[in-house]
Design goal:
Elements: H1 2-16, E1 25-33, E2 42-50, E3 57-62, E4 73-74, E5 76-84, E6 87-99, E7 104-111, E8 114-122, E9 132-135, H2 143-155, E10 159-162, H3 173-179, H4 181-184
Parallel strand pairs: 9-10
Antiparallel strand pairs: 1-2, 2-6, 3-4, 3-7, 5-6, 7-8
Length: 192
């Protein structure tokens, strides 16, 4: 009888606390250019990183905000298991394909049907002029870096080109998490 009560207690704890084994997002979803290197097609890639627990993610995208969307597309998602410094993590990639140029899109990354990241982006332009930013030697995690990131965000460039030395001291994953992502991933519009 004691074993049954113990088993029931464990089952009840798991049901009552579903976050006990929930997914931890290590790097929030961020947008990258896709492999459409010509001006004949356009695509984007959303990338994010989690702990090693498998999860059920979906990524939807549309030409309108989702509450008004006539057509909602679902991106294909791939996952790669990584082992960095002996710790297992998962890297997710969702390819948003067949996009129109010079167009505003909305996306929503969902975990178990709950939104974890929603935003919008504009696709590349075919116009002869493009607004972009170039920076290098910027990954120290300083207040100056925060101010520069804020200024770049205010200018709303179509893309950012980096020349290298993105994080210090060694370009390691944990240095990106500390000195890069907090400054350059969308988390609000104010300086850190």
């Amino acid at each position: 009888m004691l074993k049954i009560n113990l088993l029931l207690s464990i089952v009840f704890s798991l049901v009552a606390n579903p976050n006990l084994f929930s997914q931890q997002i290590l790097v929030t979803p961020y947008l990258q250019p896709g492999n459409a290197s010509t001006l004949s097609k356009e695509q984007k890639v959303l990338i994010w990183q989690t702990d090693s627990i498998p999860a059920n993610f979906t990524v939807n995208y549309s030409l309108q905000e989702f509450s008004n969307a006539d057509k909602i597309l679902t991106a294909g998602i791939s996952v790669v298991d990584l082992k960095l410094k002996g710790k297992a993590t998962r890297l997710y990639r969702a390819v948003l394909e067949d996009l129109f140029f010079d167009t505003l899109y909305y996306y929503d990354v969902r975990l178990n049907n709950k939104s974890i990241a929603a935003n919008s982006f504009r696709t590349r332009t075919k116009k002869p002029f493009t607004k972009f930013a170039v920076m290098g030697d910027f990954g120290a995690g300083s207040s100056q870096q925060a101010a520069i990131a804020y200024r770049i965000a205010q200018q709303n460039p179509q893309f950012v080109l980096t020349t290298g030395d993105n994080v210090y001291d060694n370009g390691l994953e944990e240095e990106y998490r500390k000195n890069f992502y907090p400054y350059y991933l969308p988390q609000g519009n104010e300086p850190a």
